[in-house]
């Protein structure tokens, strides 16, 4: 499972929520689209996995770019995820004059599979795979920030998606899908590293169906309580 008009979440488009629980996402189609590029399939596969990871953990651009292989580790409460049960974000957004904030993240069920496939089967074929960076570029040890933006825009346009979508839309979609799936708002706030709940609320772009279901539940609960036997008149 959004634009620069962040003060008004209703104006911020999000990605189709149907892919939130599966490793088969729009990035799979992006990979097929980018594979036509003469550069070959390795960078395209990297891009697809990078975008899935950014969504799967709700990461900012620089947090995604600065990931290293060693940032993933086992989760004692989720041994089924193997060596990718948790992710340590070492380059979180910092306050002015302060070091980057760190936070440890849990996973979607499909994220360990995506990461393990990239690390063990595909990344070793990259020219600069000897470095620590999870996402080496074609020309250096680590992909650049502007490269993330340009590749996202290229795939978006090739697929005919909303031109308002940007890299940060993946993060807003992650927040929105957690909220729509019923996760506690405080948990979501801590997952994405927001200091204030209001910031998380601004990035939440729930659908009209979700708003309708929420209202329906509230109305049903009110009517049920009013009709309960023994209620004082």
UniProtKB/TrEMBL annotation:
The keyword Lipid biosynthesis does not apply. Residues 20-30 have a biased composition (Low complexity). PROSITE patterns: TYR_RECOMBINASE. It holds the Pfam family Phage_integrase. Residues 14-220 form the Tyr recombinase domain. Transmembrane segments: none annotated. Keywords: DNA recombination. InterPro entries: DNA_brk_join_enz, Integrase-like_cat_sf, Integrase_catalytic. Residues 1-30 are annotated as: Disordered. This is Site-specific integrase. It comes from Streptomyces nigrescens.
